[in-house]
Amino acid sequence: xxxxxxxxxxxxxxxxxxxxxxxxxxxxxxxxxxxxxxxxxxxxxxxxxxxxxxxxxxxxxxxxxxxxxxxxxxxxxxxxxxxxxxxxxxxxxxxxxxxxxxxxxxxxxxxxxxxxxxxxxxxxxxxxxxxxxxxxxxxxxxxxxxxxxxxxxxxxxxxxxxxxxxxxxxxxxxxxxxxxxxxxxxxxxxxxxxxxxxxxxxxxxxxxxxxxxxxxxxxxxxxxxxxxxxxxxxxxxxxxxxxxxxxxxxxxxxxxxxxxxxxxxxxxxxxxxxxxxx
Length: 278
What we know:
Blueprint: H1 2-24, H2 30-51, H3 61-81, H4 87-94, H5 97-108, H6 115-134, H7 140-163, H8 169-191, H9 197-223, H10 226-229, H11 235-247, H12 254-277
Helix pairs in contact: 1-9, 1-11, 2-3, 2-8, 2-9, 3-7, 3-8, 4-7, 4-11, 4-12, 5-7, 6-12
């Protein structure tokens, strides 16, 4: 469990730095940001697939393509939302995606939602309503972008579950990053802005921290029981808020912190319930 905690903390820190870097590069076109986030990660995943002699094309190719396309749109929408919202606020709202995943599962996988899950969902949505309804600093446009991203991320969970163990996790990531790099690369040709030396470093760091965030999160889940390690992933919100305050000089209102806290409480309760049930 100690290893799992360390792995999850490293993962949360990595994703937090990624979020801050995206926010810091917001003066660039979002497709250029997505392109570097994706292409650098591929430099890690492709050699690992070749080294382990894993079929690069995968088995569930239609589902892999769907996961890649939906993932690209979800990531792009989230990155756009960071242009309008504080990083901690955007990350908090995006974390309601498991709720949408559960709702999609009702219609696509014929699963049932227990009554106490509905209660946890209500708590999380109450936090979102507090953020949007009472925090005047939350942009409506940014809010809509991050909600759309959360909905699509919920659909991604369903696609990954349908893929199951028939494809290696690195294949799923490679499809996601490959499709994102391809589509964003085309748009980047029309919106290219040449970075400075320090901005080049930040762009490269996007992919590096993105990869390590994903890698150590997987390691944490492999090292301990999911119901013990899964709630730890939400410390990303805390790390992101702190990084936003000290790195980007972001300021959070008291009501904003309350709303974000309620969102995370609701989502963590649901995560623990589902993990224990499994």
